[in-house]
Amino acid sequence: SITGIVLTKLDGTAKGGIVIAVQRELGVPVKLIGLGEGADDLAPFEPGAFVDALIGD
Fold first, then answer.
1. Quick one: what percent of the chain has pLDDT higher than 70?
2. How confident is the model at residue 31 (pLDDT cuts 50, 70, 90)?
3. Residue-wise over 23-34: b if at least 16 C-beta within 10 A, else e?
4. If we measure between CA atoms, which residue out of 23, 20, 22, 50 comes closest to residue 35?
5. DSSP states of 1-57
6. In angstroms, how far is CA 18 from the centroid of its own chain?
7. Are 56 and 30 in contact (CB under 8 A)?
8. pTM (2 decimals)?
9. Cα–Cα distance between 51 and 53 in angstroms, integer?
10. What's the confidence (pLDDT) of residue 56?
11. Which residues neighbour 10 within 8 Å (Cβ) at sequence distance 6 or greater?
12. Would you place residue 11 in the very low, low, confident or very high pLDDT band (cuts 50, 70, 90)?
């Protein structure tokens, strides 16, 4: 069974709201996000920091 999601391509022009839509559709948490081109650019998903960045705080 799937225990979490890794979302890539959140840098640049990607719309951050897709994180919420994917999580709701699949019913599992987002665990990692990709912020660049390489494996070293994967980072733990932090919901609070994500919301702050999304709304510009």
1. 86
2. very high
3. beeeeeebeebb
4. 50
5. ----EEE---STT--TTHHHHHHHHHTS-EEEEE-SSSGGGEEE--HHHHHHHHHT-
6. 8
7. no
8. 0.68
9. 5
10. 75
11. 16, 19, 33, 34, 35
12. low
* Length reported for the chain: 57
| Pair 16, 23: CB distance under 8 Å | no
Give the pair of three-digit tokens for residue 45: 């998903």
Calpha distance 40→31 (Å, rounded): 15
Q: What is the pLDDT of residue 23?
A: 85
